Amino acid sequence: MACVGLIRTPNYAKSAPNAANALFTAYRPREIIGAGKAWWSKGWVNVPLYKKMDTLTPSQAIKLSLSEDAPIVTGPSVEAVSQPVSYNEPAAKAAAAAEVLDDLSSPSKRGLAKRGVNDPCSPQPDGYGPKPADDTVDAFLGFKTFHDTANNAATPQGYQRSFVDLSASVHANSYMGLYTLRTYDTIKCQQLCDAANLCTAFNIYFERDPTLAPAEACPNPSSFTNIKCTLWGSGVTTEAAVNKGQYRRDFQVVITGSNGYTKDNPPSAQAGFDGPTQFGGAINAPGNYIGQKYFAGVYDAGKCAGACQATTAYERRHPRSDGTYKACQFFNAYLLSKNNIPVGTYCSMYTKSWGKQYSTNYGQYRGSDYYSVSSSYGFTLNPQDPMHI
Predict the structure, then answer these.
(1) φ, ψ for residue 94 (rounded to 5)?
(2) What's phi and psi for 272, nearest 5 deg?
(3) What global pTM score does this model have?
(4) Which of 100, 117, 137, 276 is the most buried (most CB within 10 A)?
């Protein structure tokens, strides 16, 4: 039996299978070629041997724990009919820089604000969509008008249809805002997306909603149909369309005619940097790596620029004895997804720039979950930092 060699189990490994799995995060396995053993803290464990592909520098493997601890807002509340986009790109970049500086001194703690609710039995707004004559969930889900409308909807120029006529809406970490429309208008939804900074996709659908806010005195009011348009700071996928509705008291909210559209939207240019340069996967360079940062939610390369600049500022204030310091001269920003559901922006930072030929890290497994890389771009500081006082 072949011996693979010794591996050191990462901090997150809690069991022998995880230890074995950790070994193969350094590869993109395509072909099993045999069997072997790897050393775990409690002894040797059996592992499959894969044909070696694109070996990763261990320190550059995606640190998945960063994405697991971040707060998430995955979509609109069931009561919402309008949540205009309020994403402020410069403010987000500044906040990212502040977060990096805070991380270098002490861990930050973040949380989500609580949402409000409607007054009991208060009339609900909107409800402009058609509805079946029979006011039941089954009639709503089977209403031919909804399905014909979704299947015949126009795909806006510059977009690709990601999915069509599902009975679920998108539930992901890159939610930006919600608009309720008077008609099922993909062009109008596209225009709302194009008007919002960093919006790269939208989801439009019919939703069965109550005419009154369900409460003890009105637990199951009659229904009407809302046509909702949600905006996203990443692509939308079939895998992310998992919100099938919910109960509000005895009233069942359901969704159908759900279409998703995604545009190819490279990130904005960043002041003080050349780029963006499009890559295949994430950078897997042979050296000069100085760290990473993850930001949950909207895909925003500007946050990586802020993190890069903040890292350099910190290092410049803490030089070595000879006056030299590490500077972030280049960063790689990409969208990290878990099982094809976007989770946030991942930033890798380097003291020199690297080209597309090094963008060979397309993702990695953690247990049965696959974390993939997309929308990978590089930015190079211009002019370069001298890296000495």
Answers:
(1) -65, -40
(2) 90, 0
(3) 0.65
(4) 100
